[in-house]
Design a protein that fits this description.
- The protein has 2 domains: 30 residues; 93 residues, Sandwich (Immunoglobulin-like).
- The chain is built from 2 helices and 7 strands.
- Keywords: Stress response.
Length: 150
């Protein structure tokens, strides 16, 4: 079941990205090919493993644009083989992953029929929490104002 977010888009301002993400999650839940795992390696490192048996690196494209990681695959059909049973799918696909802010793709490689994509969250120094020194009078610097006795 798909939801139509159009009425909410017309009556809200500034929430466009939220509805786009909800729509993306709904669409992603309906897609099942190719299967994948997302693994947290530590607090700031993640790994996506996508099962791509039968694909070669030059038949797969991986791109990142505006916090979206897109994986596309196209297998050239060859009529050289006659299959009695074909259980491994080699159909074309396009799968997208929405990346959080400051998550960058560090690399990708094939390993045992899996495409492994390495991700790392790198928060800029300007956005990291920092301690601010609070200036104030210390005990040795207190001056007493002298006045005349009344």
């Amino acid at each position: 079941m798909r939801y139509d977010w159009t009425p909410l888009w017309r009556s809200t301002i500034g929430f466009d990205r939220l509805f786009d993400v909800l729509d993306e999650v709904q669409r992603t839940a309906e897609e099942t090919y190719p299967p994948y795992n997302i693994e947290r390696l530590d607090e700031n490192r993640f790994q996506i493993s996508v099962a791509l048996a039968g694909f070669t690196p030059d038949e797969v494209a991986l791109t990142v644009a505006q916090n979206t990681l897109t994986l596309e695959g196209h297998k050239a059909e060859t009529d050289e083989k006659t299959f009695v049973h074909r259980g491994m799918s080699t159909r074309s696909f396009k799968r997208q992953f929405t990346l959080a802010d400051h998550v960058e793709v560090k690399g990708a490689h094939f390993e045992n029929g899996l495409l492994v994509v390495e991700l790392q969250r790198e928060i800029p120094e300007a956005m990291k929490p920092r301690r601010i020194a609070i200036a104030g009078a210390s005990a040795g610097q207190v001056k007493q104002i002298e006045g005349k006795a009344a």
